Every structure is written in C-alpha cells, then in structure tokens.
Amino acid sequence: MKSMAKAAKSMTAAQLEALCGHWPGVTRDIKWGADLVFSVGGKMFVVTPSDGSEGGRLSFKVPDERFLELTDQPGIIAAPYMARAHWVSVVEPQRFASAELADFIRASYGLVRAKLTKKLQAELGPWPLPTEKTK
C-alpha cells in the first residue's frame, strides 16, 4: 500500500478514538454542535470536529513552557477561547506525522489527568505507559 510507504499524516476522529478511547477514565461527547471532545475526570484534553471538517483540526493542552514554541510553528495556532489555559489548535494536521500528533495528545491527557484530585487519580488506576511500536 502507498500509505504504508510514508509516515501517516494527520489524525481522523476514528484514529483519535483508537488512540485514546481506552485510556483510564476517558469519556467522549459532542459539544458545541459538532465537536468530538475527549475528557478525563470531566476535564477536556482533546477536541476535533466529529465530521472531519475544518481540515481535521485538533485542539489540546500543551505544557506551559512549550506553548509559545508550538504556536510559532506553521500549522499551529493558539486555541480560540482556550489559549490562556495553554491549549493549541493544529489547524493543518496534515503537516504532522500521526505519531507526533499522538504524542501531543498523550501529553495532553497526562497534563489534564495530573490536575485531577489525588483521590480521582487513584480511582482511575495506573496509566499504562505507551508502548510505541504498537502499529
């Protein structure tokens, strides 16, 4: 297959579901009409249009110290309404390898999960470490 020869680019809603849908405490719902939102402990960690519109935009939380660096890159902007919480929007996800986007989303989950109460974190149980090479 052609797609296997090159690194996969971008990430669809189905790929996002396959990546993080099974992580401890993850829920998904539709907000604002058509945005697919993944949350942990009731707190959002990644958002994408459920219908693949807007070029498959992905929005997620990033570490405070990486926010300016990332928003200086082509294809990434400060997320509207969420920039003050250090969220970015990847408005051109096709510029990025799926594995790189997966790393960003994994980090976002970790950042949001770490802000939950210790009790809730304990209830979620251990977070399995990523075993890259699962593809």
Summary of the model, kept short:
The protein is of the alpha+beta class.
Helix-residue proportion: 25-40%
Strand order of the largest sheet: 1-2-3-4-6-5
Q: Tell the overall outline.
A: globular
The CATH architecture term is Alpha-Beta Complex
Number of distinct beta strands: 6
Q: Give the ordered list of helices and strands.
A: HHEEEEHEEHH
How much of the sequence lies in strands comes to 15-25%
- Count of DSSP H/I helices: 5
The CATH topology is given as: Aspartate Aminotransferase, domain 1
Could you give the distance between the termini?
A: 15 Å
Task: Describe the secondary-structure layout.
Elements (H helix, E strand, L loop, with lengths): L1 H4 L7 H8 L5 E6 L3 E6 L2 E7 L8 E4 L5 H5 L4 E3 L8 E4 L7 H17 L3 H7 L11
Antiparallel strand pairs: 1-2, 2-3, 3-4, 4-6, 5-6
What attributes does this structure have?
135 residues, Aspartate Aminotransferase, domain 1, 6 strands, alpha+beta, 22% strand, six-stranded antiparallel β-sheet, 30% helix, disordered N terminus, globular
